[in-house]
Amino acid sequence: MVGPALALFVVMLVVPVGLSLYLSLTDWDGYSANPAFVGLKNYVNLTHSAEAIRAGWVTLLIAAVGTVLLSVFGLGFALLVNGASRLNAFFRIVLFYPHVLSALVVGFLWSAVLGTSGVVNGWLTSKGAEVLPFLSDPKWALASLIAVLVWAGFGVNVVLYLAGLQTVSKDLLEAARIDGATTRQTFFNVTLPALAPVVTVNLVLSLVTLLKTYDLVVSLTGGGPAGSTQTAAYLILWDSFHNNALGFGSAQSVVLMVITAGLALTVARLRARADQGVQA
Amino acid sequence: MSALRMPRVATVQFKPWKTKGWGRVAFLVVTSVLMLVPMYLLVVSAFKSQQDILAHPFSLSPDQLTTEYLRKAATNPDFNILKGYAVTILFVVSVNVLSVALAGPVSYVIARRSERRYRMLLLLFVAGTFIPSQVLVIPVVYTLKFLGLMGTIPGFVLFETTLTLPFSIFLYAGYIMTIPASLDEAAAVDGAGKHRVFWSIVFPLMKPAVVTMVILNTFSVWNDFVNPQIILGPGSGLYTVTTGVYAAVSQYSTDYTVVFPTLLLAVAPLLVVFVLLQRHVISGLTAGATKG
Amino acid sequence: MARSARKPGRKLGLLTSVVILVGAAGCGGGFSDDKGAAGDSTGEVRMLVNITPNLTKSYWEGLVKPFEDANPGVDVKIEAPTGSGVKDTLPQLLAAGNAPDVVETLMADKVLAPQMLDLTDQAWTKDTPLVEQASLDGKVYTVGVGQQAQSLVFYNKDAFAKAGISAPPKDLDELTAAMGKLKAAGYLPLQTAGDYVTGLQLLQLSDPSIATKHPDWYQQINSKQAKVGETMLPLLERYQSWIKNGYVDKNALGLKDVGAQTNFLSGKAGMYVMGSWFVRTADDAKPTFDLGVFAAPTEKGQPSPGPQGVTMAAPYMVLKSTKQRDLSVKLVQWLVTDKTAVQSQLAQDGNFRKGYTEKLSPLGKQVQDILDQAPKQVAQGEGYGANTLPQGFNGEWNKAVQSLYTGKSAKDVAARIDSWMGSKS
Questions:
Q1: CATH architecture of B68-287
Q2: How many Å lie between the alpha carbon of A154 and the closest alpha carbon of chain C?
Q3: Which residues of chain A have a CB within 8 Å of the CB of C87?
Q4: How many domains are there within chain C?
Q5: pLDDT digit string, tens, across residues C290-333
Q6: Chain Cα centroid distance, residue C67
Q7: Burial, C142: exposed, middle or buried (Cβ in 10 Å; 0-12, 13-18, 19+)?
Q8: Which value does ipTM take for this structure?
Q9: Is C256 within a domain?
């Protein structure tokens, strides 16, 4: 039962990752026929690279804040649109549709809204107010990036939580209602514990997805201003292709992978007890 | 004690009390506006000239609107839109079927067995999502070349399926954990083998999760632009909807008179399908098959 | 908590696969395995090009049609990049064994040259623009259609008149003074932007004065006799003062290049530094004001006009791995020597070439004059041929200059770029 999936996975993903690992030990530029083996030189350079370290912190910040926001909005809205009415169906579509658009489109559309001569600032200047530096100030740009990431992504969490909400035992809810529990009490004592595995799934998957943020950075901020919104994935691709340093880029990928693994494992471990409470 | 673990039935989570009803709707309407603003931009811009898009992104003056760009995007001679849809649908269906067939059983095993090595197995699968796909492109290409699968449909479908496995397995495993194991045990006592237990007892109860994954996988396969281009290559004569419409621009083009109509064409059918699928999703998510 | 070992079988299987693959990759002819071939006289030739607002796919297809008509049985297939541009896409296609036959946009450097066909013995390359400057160690890999002038300042003549500026500034002090006057008259003196524009504009502005002060700037930098940051410091300090005085929009980083162009062409800004390809955009947009252009000024005391930054327009290279070598070379030859094809490409993207001056627009003629009057033509930024800086310089410079807007000083920027250059040696 495990065999076929594992075999496919190893061949199609593990092996390329292994190749990536090998490339990280070379100075390959993406073109030459015989990349030279340079041992751990790329990794050493990485520790000296202020750019890479900053990209690392930016990525971690995006992942941490984004993961929390995605689950808060995801679960919150799932509770609001749960139910079989037409209205709920409409809202579900509205909440989810950004996921249908590619990140590149989302980035462009929002930069048209938030940019220096975008819709919001155009309106502000027409009223004589100061321009808001959504995309031109480093801190604002990072906040805008996170906001748009959440805007584009929380629909997925809504869908996941909706599926999870279906597993909460109706009888238990009825019992709580009969006992006179308030909405809040019911939520925290019945619903949330029953949702524990779903929460874990959401947290881990949001975390892992956000750590890979790339496309939106390209289309919304271009990594700017002054490179302040460059994420790890963005820098990896930049170094790999624009700077012809695929070996160095691969080293960064390996580090990203290790950090992601560490974080995902930590979150899963921390959630383990809550999940076990749900198992039959 | 078994009362606590009855099979799930769908329900309205909270009865919408009269006083809260309107507040909730109002809040959702405000949220919807915020959600739909960029969509409005997308649709409106498909009918505008480049300068108009840049100077007046929100305006909707009928005399400035034109269908010229939309028509140009739709009648691209390089690209037979019907063939593109057919190819894409073929890929979407194959990947979804294969994904469920492979991910289902593995998730079942992971969810039911508590040994350490199955936690490790889950972590291994989830680790598949740890590297951004753009970074993997070149190593994957070399791997596929080695296997002789470059430029072939099976190669592409297998790779796309692999990409769906981590998320699917993780979600299915989590979902199965909420399905009481007592059901399996009852079936096993009746002499059913592991495969039968999974497919005939557990799988039907997993519908919401499966439906969710089918939706998500459909979108990711549909929107995948780089992988079909690189793996199938220009020489294969195969193109999906996105690679076909994007053939006229690079993904990152700033010629908005091409980008927006193109995007609208690529995205509109997805949205329509999603809206239609919603009807089934509603029944899938909220009806929740009851067993036993 | 110690992790217990996975099933030994699985681990072994994993290890084996990795070893097999690494072995295959390492031993089996390395990472490039395609040898080229001369090919037939008919068939398909694939060309990877950059698609821009000026150079659309349908433009390219129309451009090559006469070649296809003159060579029956030949189909030129135009391909757009899958990545963010040709530079990202080419290595992926090469790895996939799907490399095109001809590639546009890129110029040969020591990384690309081994993959490209040596065209030195082709006589027709001799008269193409900038062919010697672009050659590497005497070998010709890249040929182009024309020249792009880089160090240009486009300006709103009406705004200048309103601000009381009688003539375009001849040196950088006059330029700063002009900005002050424009600001007083209610205009944004200099239109800048985020994206790649920030660093590019400063490079373009710097070419004349730097090339005058350091005629062998590239050689001096590469032999460590001078440092980039140090030589650029005066200009960086000047740019910083512009930010402080509000001569450039402090929120400019939130604008993309198209946004900046729109802003300038709608008359809100007095000046816009950009390369000659902007002529085409400006002509198409038909601004309501009188649009002029002058050469980027030199420092006070230096001769004026100074050298002009020049780059190659539409560079083409043929891949060594092409199976249609003869046809590919024929196509490239046609693209850069056939009068109609050349004229079309020059006009479409606002580029220039000796002997092709009749069809220029009034604005284009002004740029041609600037080119003609420049005492010298120099490379810019990452450069080409014998005058190059390490790959990635343009991007790093751009980020560094942008940090002037986010609170860093000119000295910080200079130190940053010098430290990057130092790490690249």
A1: Orthogonal Bundle (1.10)
A2: 25
A3: 241-242
A4: 2
A5: 999 999 999 999 998 999 999 999 999 999 999 999 999 999 99
A6: 27
A7: buried
A8: 0.86
A9: yes
